Amino acid sequence: MEQKLKDRNHRVFFIDPMDISLPLLDRMYKEMTNPSEMLRELEEKIRSAEGYMPVTPEYNHSTSAAMKNTLDYFLEEYYFKPSAIVSYSPGGFGGINAAQQMRLIFAEPGAPAIPSSFPISRVHEVFDESGKLIDQRYEKRVKRFLDEFEWYIEALKNQRETRGTPY
Q1: Is the Cα torsion angle 81, 20, 23, 34 positive or negative in sign?
Q2: How many CB atoms are located within 10 Å of the residue 92 CB?
Q3: Distance (Å, rounded) from C-alpha 74 to C-alpha 42?
Q4: What is the model's pTM?
């Protein structure tokens, strides 16, 4: 997805919760008096984004704790920008339970999920070990999913620019 977004001239920030390794949330970014440089950079990336595409595994019928912890550091930064949820699992359902949880999570900070989600079933059969797509049936789905995401990005961006936000 990252390369597909870049091919469509989007600026992409790939944020891996496991790489940034935030401590368990005890206060939100906006409540911190002296956030770390890493948190300031993360806040800027989230604030400047026009949309969000969480890619989540399914773990215990939900998203990962690391993903949830990372998302919870911020709130206003997400306001009135769409999210497009990608989920995956080694099983046949592609992480759809995690995707449903992500819909609820992104609704709270005002980053509504687009109607479609992008579940990837049997992820180990879809990508090779380097992450290259090997199941070409996903190409058509990816195009349609990204077309929908871009539609919502543009619609919400136009509303923010012409009417502002409700709050």
Answers
A1: negative
A2: 9
A3: 10
A4: 0.92
Tell me the residue range of the domain where 14 lies. 2-163
Cα→Cα distances 89→6, 39, 64, 116, 144, Å: 25, 29, 12, 17, 21
Q: Give the pLDDT of residue 166.
A: 87
Task: Quote the CA–CA distance of 154 and 81 in Å, as a whole number.
Answer: 10
Q: How many residues can be counted in the chain?
A: 167
Q: What is the DSSP code (8-state) at residue 29?
A: G
Q: What is the DSSP letter of 151?
A: H
CB contact at 8 A, 87 and 126: no
Tokens 């543009």: give the residue.
Answer: 154
Q: What is the CATH number of the domain that holds 45?
A: 3.40.50.360
62 φ, ψ to 5°?
A: -150, -175
Q: Residues 81-125: pLDDT tens digits?
A: 999 999 999 999 999 999 999 999 999 999 999 999 999 999 999
Provide the domain count of the chain. 1
pLDDT at 83: 98
Residues 56-78 have pLDDT tens digits of 999 899 999 999 999 999 999 99
- What tokens does 166 get? 């409700």
Q: Where do we find the tokens 């077309």?
A: 147
